[in-house]
Amino acid sequence: MGSAAAALFLPPATQIGGKSSLELKKNSSGLLYSRKSHKVHRPTTAVVVARLFGPAIFEASKLKVLFLGVDQARHPGHLPRAYTLTHSDITAKLTLAVSHTINGAQLQGWYNRLQRDEVVAEWKKVKGKMSLHVHCHISGGHFLLDFIAKLRYYIFTKELPVVLKAFVHGDVTLFNAHPELEEALVWVYFHSNLPEYNKVECWGPLREAAASAGHMGTAAGFSPATCPAVMPLKCQADCTCCFPPHSLIPWPQEFEQPYAGGSALPQQQQQ
């Protein structure tokens, strides 16, 4: 149908591949059959489905790491340390920035503001115990994200082990110097304007969370047996057992309490 339609609008003298438009019209049915016989769409669809619903795999060769003004081996309990991870749909590569705060320059541009598929994280010491706090944007900001909030939650929870592996691999000097950090609890904050996705989950120790298959967006959340019943909060007064004094993530954070069973209800975070 496409070949015949194109031939109808060609001048009589127009030549295509040595044939006039009249000859093209005569052979349009044969061309259509030939084209159809060579088009195979199913494998492409299968690949897309496999990537979306298949296992998440970390490929170190696709990770680019930037260290921005940080001592690679300095313990984050004494010096602020944050991660900014972004993904390119064009190259399928990950870029990880390790710095004292999130790398705002990495999040600029209309594409990043539209997709909002970045993951940012920070190290915290609360009452003497280290923990990694990871933030994902599910919905809010524009209606497209709201429309696919459920799918975005599924994707983030599926891909989070890959994100954690990228942190460990990219910041390998830190983890070699302080291997106990792989036993730190991972707290994941899902930011959304929809109550069912606006929550925080405990994913257990970093070593186990990075090796897991995620929880694939189950509504009940993810709360391993190693997670506490209540999220620890930093001291109200100045102390040496909590660091840093304020969050390095400049996103609205309304999750720290109450926490129970892997989810939290919105409540203003105590900075």
TrEMBL record:
Its main location: plastid. Keywords: Chloroplast, Plastid, Transit peptide. GO terms for cellular component: chloroplast. GO terms for biological process: chlorophyll catabolic process. It holds the Pfam family Staygreen. Residues 58-209 form the Staygreen protein domain. It is found in: Plastid, Chloroplast. The keyword Plastid applies. Belongs to the staygreen family. This is Staygreen protein domain-containing protein. It comes from Colocasia esculenta.
